[in-house]
Structure formats: C-alpha cells, structure tokens
Write a structure and sequence with these properties.
The protein is mainly beta and about 350 residues long. The chain is about 15% helix and about 45% strand. It has 2 domains: about 90 residues, no CATH class; about 200 residues.
Length: about 350
Amino acid sequence: MMNRLFTTIATMTALLLMVVTSGVNAAPVSPTDSLVIRFANRTRLVIYAPDKAGIQALSNYDLNKIVREMGMKLDSVPGGQTAISQDGERFLKDTVLVLTQKKDGFTIVINSKDDTIRTKPAGQDSSNRAYTQAKRRRRDKSSFDYGISIGLNNFIQQSDNPTYPALSPFGSRYIALSVGAMPTIIRGKHASLKLYYGVEVAWNNFMFEGNNVVEKGPVAVAFPDAGRDLQKSKLTVCTIGVPVVPRVTFYNSDGRKVGHIGVGGYANYRLDSYRKIKEADGSKDRRHSDYYLNNFRYGVMAHIGIQSLNFFVKYDLNPLFQLDKGPDVRTLTFGIGF
C-alpha cells in the first residue's frame, strides 16, 4: 500500500507541476531541476520542475487532500493508474505535515493532532521474522550490570539448646554490592534460560536484643550481658562471594520482560568481622576479631523477579561459627535487589 501511495504521489506531483508551470495544453518541457527522495524500501519519489521555483511551489498545495483523492480512485481504476485533476487551484491550501520517527514506527501529523496516521517502518512488521529475531538478540544479549541488595538476617538454630541471645528482627540488616553478567543459555519466544553469575561484597549485621555483647574467649565465643544499658550491640561479618543462579525469564507478546525465577548457590569468603557497641551516652566501641567465624560459607539461594525488581532468599549450608567454637547456627537472609 505504501509503495502504491508513494508512486501515486510521484505521478501526481509531476503532472501537477507541469500544469502549474507549463499550462494545461502546453507540451512538456525538459526539466532542469529535480528533487529525488529515497525511502528505505527502495521506493523513490522523483519531482521534476523547470526551475527551483517550481519545486518550491509545492508548499502551496494541500498534498494531504491530493493523496486522499488519489487513494479513493486507486481502488476503482484497473491497474491502479489514475491522474489528478488539472485544476491546481482545488489543492491550494496552507498545509503542514510533521513526520516523527518513533521506536515502533513513525507518526504523520497533518494540520492537527486529530488527523494522525501511525504506521510501522518498512520491513519491521511484528510478524517479520528478521525483525523479531533482532528484538530477541537485543533482549538476550549478555552485559555486565551493577546492583545493590538490602534485606534482613536471622539465625536458624540447629541444636535444642540455644547458646546465643535473640536477634533484633529489624536491626539485623543485610546489604550487598554486586557486579554480574547474565548470558542466555536457551532462547525462546516467551521464556529464556539464563545464567546469572557475578561477584558481590556483603555485610551481615547481627544485632542483639537486650544488653548482650559478643566476646572471643580462649576456646570459644561467648555472649555475656554487659551489665549496663546499651543502645546497640551487634556482630558484623563482611564477605566477598560468587553467586551462580540459573534463571528462567518470562516475556510478554511484545518481548518485554515480565518476571523471572531462579535457584542456585553461592560461596563466600570472610574479609573482616567486628563487634560494635553503642553506649547509652552515645559513645561507640568497635573491636575487630575473627570471633571463631568460619572463613568460608556456602549455601543455596533463590530469585523471584517482577520486571526490574529481584526478591532473593539465601540460606547457609554450613555453620556460621567453627565447630565447637560457637553456637551451631546457620544464617538465613532475605530481601530485595535493585
């Protein structure tokens, strides 16, 4: 339809200029100036005129009105050939056409927003296989990205007799900074299997309720009562880790991501650990020590995503503390990533 439309405009414009510049009954003249417009689908619109003034005279004509009249004639004339009226005055009008390129095509606005035509670029129809494959390649390309995760920590007791104080549910916070990649393993129309992997630096904060503090004894870690009122008492463990999570990502009919789900694992190495006490008067005391913590921690994790948000759950499979050096607890962490 577009090819017929541009061909019609070219034929109409050439005849119109001959009428305007040479007269109705005059013989055609040899053009000395021309305007050639090339389109992506190899269609050409060629306008001939005896001089530049003839081409400039196009601004005096209502091309929209001409196209409408030609479009009505095309369906009723065998072979699609027709001619415009030689009464050039019929088409004189101050008309403005604005073409705006957009991601899904282009928009032609004629005179006002109420008279709008929208179409897709030639060769990029949604049913076009090459166009669809190109969208999938852009969607599934692997790239590094940066993220931040925030959440909460808790202890999962493995023995019947807890030997540690209770944790503050909202004070035991988790924060991590990460960089990772997610190449596509299997690509589908509405779902893809991807593999997320990266490196992250994380801080697990275990804040105690009450006035207990953590101390490293000669043979084990202890959590005695400080014997005074404290504003805050916590144990912080900083680790660097490598998460590896296969993900299934889902897309809608337009190729946009709607969500994902994944299950994988991680391995962490302890970089630092310290206790922090904040006294009732606001003074602080920070002491660095290993506190008999396991240097290596590993576990399983799950991801559930909605568009760009990623909800996660992590569970350590090995104890937080060394065997017989501290309470037999695992760490459970959950939160959201951006």
